[in-house]
Amino acid sequence: MIVLRKYATIFSISLAERLTYRTDFFLGTLIRFMPIVTTIFLWGAIFAGSDRTRIAGFTSDEIIAYYLLIMVSRAFSSMPGLASGIAFDIREGNIKKYLTQPIDMLGFLLTSRIAHKLVYYSIASVPFAIVFFLCREFFPGWPPPTVLAAYVISLALAFVIGFLFEALLGVLGFWMLEISSLLWVVNTLNYLLNGHMFPLDLVPGPLGVLIRLLPFQYMAYFPAMLFLRGAEMSTMELALAVGGELLCAVALWVAVRYLFARGVRHYSAFGG
């Protein structure tokens, strides 16, 4: 009970802090949808130039729907500043407060990010609803209830995977004095390989198979495709697909916990 009260307090404080910037959340979310206008014209031109009704299995409407859903996925899995913040705390010695007090650093950060996402979506739901209403013609309709349930679960797991992936990069700060260059490289790869830049179906052959074995797809591509194509899957196939995402989350959790424990033993405090 003491542990639950401790994290409930952290959650409520983080919630109040995030609510301070609700107008920024609203405007920032609305502006993030502006590139979809360029995307609509771009893919319209691609389909017109190719004289094809389908590219990599997508119709022109499905491509637009895909990019809209990618924005939802990324809103769940994106963790700006998490890895760099962890590395900074390690480098500057701020991590000592987590080592000397009965507060787990990863638990504290996870609770804070949950509060952040709840505030974000409670405020961003309005611009999201407006954009999706205006673009409703690109969607074939709502998927079946089982698919919708799998989609919601996949978004929750995308949040967990996004958090753990950034935390994994952050704890490398125990061994690396500066990780900004590494973060730039990894985040660039993430942008390319999570399906944000283009549908992974466009990558043919063994390379496409390899990309789908990496955790990147679960941060954007997988939830979007589950919404679009989940109706074509059986209940067992849906369960196995979501189970693969869950397995990825568990593997990342074990890796982060292991590296953090090793890092603490390796740690020497610097700074104030």
From TrEMBL:
Superkingdom of the source species: Bacteria
Family matches, as Pfam families: ABC2_membrane_6
Record has Membrane as a keyword: yes
InterPro entries found in the cross-reference section: ABC-2_transporter-like (IPR010390)
Keywords noted in UniProt: Membrane, Transmembrane, Transmembrane helix
Transmembrane segments: 25-46, 66-88, 118-139, 145-165, 172-193, 205-226, 238-260
Name under which the protein is recorded: ABC transporter permease
Organism for this UniProt entry: Kolteria novifilia
